[in-house]
């Protein structure tokens, strides 16, 4: 999935991602089922054979005009409705306008919202192996992902919208080296008697964590190249992550705990 897409149908269709015009990358999306002057906020998704969002397929399509992965727009909010700014309206009212404005097609659909127990919904999402849910107050105004703070709160992040990620937890991950250029660690896991590389980790690696492991890393150096220093795998840790890429590397690993 690629987030932060805005679809505007003014005099002509425009698609934006992180303030970049990406209209020409997706010709199949050039006829959105919305009125002129309407802007929607959405996710661009590509799905696998199970119907689950496929992050790598979406990224491949985004990065290459030659890629043939099918792309679908899943709209979850509306900013302008037929020329009128509606970002100040409460969420439940904006969703009514979105329901009225956008009809589902082969390439466009609306994200489904639910009222009730977030815990029960999250458990259902977990059972299907999906990425997570977003909790939003029904009376909340629109907040851009690039400016997730309520006006007048002096930059304090709003609690009106909260993302709840379905993380996987993996134990017995080994630190196998560290970067010469930044604070990333190399990580791997023993499988069938050998250490399988899982990529690098930086998220969750605090100053305290770096200071804790630094002496042991320095005393266990095996070799190095221009980018990394490799060490004997004496330090293990627990990591939360969002699954694996097709290459076998961990997706967005976050350090949870270290075992010296």
UniProtKB/TrEMBL annotation:
Residue ranges of every copy of the ATP-dependent DNA ligase family profile domain listed in the record: 64-164
Signal peptide: none
PROSITE patterns cross-referenced by the UniProt entry: DNA_LIGASE_A3 (PS50160)
Keyword set includes Ligase: yes
Domain of life: Bacteria
A biological process term (GO) from this entry: DNA recombination
Keyword line: Ligase
GO MF annotation list: ATP binding; DNA ligase (ATP) activity
A matching Pfam family: DNA_ligase_A_M
Family from the record: Belongs to the ATP-dependent DNA ligase family.
Protein's UniProt name: DNA ligase-1
């Amino acid at each position: 999935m690629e987030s932060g897409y805005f679809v505007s149908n003014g005099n002509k269709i425009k698609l934006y991602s992180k303030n970049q015009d990406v209209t020409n990358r997706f010709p199949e999306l050039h006829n959105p089922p919305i009125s002129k002057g309407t802007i929607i906020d959405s996710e661009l998704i590509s799905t696998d054979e199970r119907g689950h969002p496929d992050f790598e397929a979406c990224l491949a399509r985004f990065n290459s005009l030659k890629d043939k992965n099918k792309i679908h727009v899943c709209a979850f909010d509306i900013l302008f409705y037929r020329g009128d700014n509606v970002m100040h309206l409460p969420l439940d009212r904006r969703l009514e306008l979105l329901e009225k404005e956008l009809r589902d097609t082969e390439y466009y659909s609306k994200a489904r919202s639910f009222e009730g127990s977030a815990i029960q919904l999250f458990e259902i999402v977990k059972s299907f192996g999906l990425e997570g849910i977003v909790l939003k107050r029904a009376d909340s105004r629109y907040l851009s992902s690039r400016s997730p703070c309520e006006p007048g709160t002096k930059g304090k992040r709003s609690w009106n919208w909260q993302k709840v990620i379905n993380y996987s937890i993996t134990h017995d991950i080994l630190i196998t080296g560290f970067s010469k250029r930044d604070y990333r660690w190399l990580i791997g896991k023993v499988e069938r008697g050998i250490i399988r590389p899982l990529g690098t980790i930086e998220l969750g690696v605090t100053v305290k964590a770096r200071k804790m492991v630094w002496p042991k890393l320095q005393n266990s150096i095996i070799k190095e190249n221009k980018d990394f220093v490799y060490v004997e795998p004496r330090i293990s840790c627990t990591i939360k992550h969002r699954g694996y890429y097709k290459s076998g590397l961990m997706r967005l690993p976050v350090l949870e705990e270290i075992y010296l």
